[in-house]
Amino acid sequence: AQALNKAIDDYLKKQGKTTGSGRRRKDDK
Questions:
Q1: What is the CB neighbour count within 10 angstroms for residue 19?
Q2: pLDDT tens for the chain, residues 1 to 29
Q3: How many CA atoms lie within 13 A of 18 on its CB side?
Q4: What does each C-alpha distance from 26 to 4, 6, 29 come to in angstroms?
Q5: Per-residue pLDDT at 11
Q6: Closest Cα partner for 18 from 3, 1, 28, 2?
Q7: How many CB atoms lie under 10 A from the CB of residue 9?
Q8: Region of residue 3 (left: phi > 0; alpha: psi -120 to 50; beta: else)
Q9: Cβ atoms within 10 Å of 23's Cβ, excluding its own
Q10: How far apart are CA 16 and CA 2, in angstroms?
Q11: Are 29 and 9 in contact (CB under 8 A)?
């Protein structure tokens, strides 16, 4: 499910929103 979460994060980033945790993921660059 990690891959799915990352995909959701990328999608939210495109929307200019933050993740539910409010933290950046380790694999974020």
A1: 14
A2: 789 989 888 887 888 655 555 555 565 55
A3: 5
A4: 15, 11, 8
A5: 86
A6: 28
A7: 19
A8: alpha
A9: 9
A10: 21
A11: no
**Tokens 């660059």, residue located:** 29
What string of H, E and C letters represents the secondary structure of the chain?
CHHHHHHHHHHHHHHCCCCCCCCCCCCCC
| Exposure on the CB side of residue 16, measured as CA atoms within 13 A | 0
Instruction: Name the pTM for this structure.
Output: 0.41
4, amino acid identity: L
pLDDT at site 27? 56
